[in-house]
Amino acid sequence: MTRRRKIYEGKAKTLYEGPEPGTLIQHFKDDATAQNGKKHEVIDGKGVLNNRISEFIFGKLNNLGIPTHFIRRLNMREQLIKEVEIIPIEVVVRNVAAGSIAKRLGLEQGTRLPRSIIEFYYKDDALGDPLIAEEHITAFGWATPQELDDIMSLAVRVNDFLSGLFIGVGIQLVDFKIECGRQFEGEMMRIVVADEISPDTCRLWDAKTRKKLDKDVFREELGDLADAYREVAQRLGILVETENALSTGPRLVE
Ligand code: TMP
Description:
Blueprint: E1 6-9, E2 13-17, E3 23-28, E4 31-34, E5 39-42, H1 46-64, E6 70-73, E7 78-82, E8 85-86, E9 89-96, H2 99-105, E10 112-122, E11 131-132, H3 134-139, H4 145-167, E12 171-185, E13 188-194, E14 202-206, H5 216-219, H6 225-235, E15 239-240, H7 245-248, E16 251-252
Antiparallel strand pairs: 1-2, 2-3, 3-7, 4-5, 6-7, 8-12, 9-10, 9-12, 10-11, 12-13, 12-14, 15-16
The structure holds thymidine-5'-phosphate (TMP).
The site of thymidine-5'-phosphate has 12 residues, from strand 9, helix 2, strand 12 and strand 14.
């Protein structure tokens, strides 16, 4: 056994060197954090669920021709990804008012926004990931105007795809966050969707009851987070009930 070289450890994931140059292994941990790391818990099974949900979504994005860093899932907690240069911006797309926009603009949670809104936050834990404008991004050189155009069109395409995917299983996509990276291939560079898309990075409400099925369950202490994520996986068809539901409960589909 050789020890893998750790490239980066974040709050919910660890990146290791991949088997070939230009690849990395993304490992999903069970850690849940909120309030910029002040609230922390280990939630059994969260990493496995997010690995599967993110694999499912990124696989579908790749098939649609929306470029991502995802190559394939390796095991219950890990996936093989392309190495990219992460752009230090969190791109948030909102369809319905909730979370920080509801607070900032005094909107009632659940109000449909006049149209989908894209926001940018500068990825800096010490500053608490502040909201920024396009002007900051280009003036400080975090991305060029052309890259920003590519990022915004990716964000819109991901929003259209995810909204349809989730409403088809009775879930409203309230908002979500993506990260983008530069993927280099020889002389070429393209902007791809990176990181993860999971109930950690989306707001997902039951379309009828508005029951929360995302990380707000942890942030607001509404119940069992893994149960909520399991429900999302089940509705997407990633989890099936075992024949004898009493014995082991839902199991992951291979
Ligand atoms: P917000 O309402 O707290 O700004 O969050 C908007 C969306 O972005 C929500 O779906 C959660 C997601 N998000 C992350 O994935 N990571 C973060 O660090 C933050 C602040 C939000």
